[in-house]
Amino acid sequence: MIELSNGHRLEFVAASGSLAFDGRGWPWEWPLRWVGLLDPHLFTIVVKTLFPDQWKGNLRWSHPWDVVKFISQEGNEINPLMALAIPRLIGGAINAIGLTNSGFDSWLERDHPIICRCEYKVVVSITEPDGRIKGCLEIVKRLNDLKNVVGVEYNASCPNIDPTLLENANMVIENCYAIKEVTALPVLLKLSFVQPYLQIARRLEGIIEAISINSVPWKVVFGDKPSPLAKYGGGGVSGRVAQPFTWKIVSELFRGANVPVIGPSIWEYDDIRRLKMLGASAYHFGTIFLPYPWKPTGYVKRWRRGQ
Asked: Which pathway does the UniProt entry assign to this protein (predicted)?
């Protein structure tokens, strides 16, 4: 567990976007919430990453499966119906959503009141295209006085938009310092396998309070094998198939930097124990919400019964 500077305890986290912008989950998950199979109150919820202004990205709500695919352990695309019928086929997912969002003002007007009414605890994830930071700083200043916001996550590692932040570690570090200067909220940083994460973490000790881990670029996981989302640049791989990469980050950060890390890529219940042994201080549920939105709630309840 991570005790943040404002007293909020971070243990089980719904990763950015897994429970949508308002914490209630996506509409197809609502029936599970109504009957208690999905309980957002069990998690610190990271809202889907916001920009200062609306960003179209790649997602089209009329055909979302164009930018999200289930994949096998070998990277082969799996038909969604077959994936649900034969769960063992799924190794994870690949997405090229590209941070589609309607912008901070829209979130503040539409989603934040729902968060307050439902009494969810949320971390607001933010970033900007091209590594710019001015708009993010304005968002952070406005977050300071919002109820139910327990932290801010700077997403410096999306594999599906401009690669500036992925390629410029100094910019990531400078931006985190700038964010910290304008907020009393705990600052979390979202990094990728392709960044010098250990170097970044060491230089941000005392500035950021936790590190979360993003999906892994397709090419890193599968090399020259053609991606199902090649027309979008390849996409980011997450879930069980990403574990060798994301869990390597957890282990190296635990041994080499004084910043707590949130363990990602949970697929099976025992993955929580495995991540704890690797040095994770809290636990992220992300892609597993897509095919099995009821499992994270079940895992957390089972874990707490066993403590």
From this structure: Pyrimidine metabolism; UMP biosynthesis via de novo pathway
Q: Give Cα 73 to chain centroid, integer Å.
A: 21
Residue 198 near residue 254 (C-beta atoms within 8 A)? no
Taken as a whole, the chain contains a residue count of 307
d(C-alpha 293, C-alpha 173), whole Å: 34
CATH architecture observed for domain 2-54+98-216+238-306: Alpha-Beta Barrel (3.20)
> At residue 185, what is the residue type?
L
Structure tokens at 187: 């600052």
Give, as one character, the DSSP assignment of residue 238.
Answer: E
Type of residue found at 82: M
State pLDDT tens for residues 18-27.
999 999 999 9
Those residues with Cβ within 8 angstroms of residue 219's Cβ, 6 or more apart along the chain or in another chain:
227, 234
Cα 69 from chain centroid (whole Å): 17
CA 74/CA 11 separation, integer angstroms: 31
Q: Which residues contact 171 (CB under 8 A, 6 or more apart)?
A: 131, 164, 165
26: tokens are 């996506």
Compute the distance between CA of residue 11 and CA of residue 302 in angstroms, rounded to an integer.
14
Looking at the DSSP bridge assignments, the partners of residue 9 are: 3
pLDDT tens, residue by residue, 225-277: 999 888 888 889 999 999 999 999 999 999 999 999 999 999 999 999 999 99
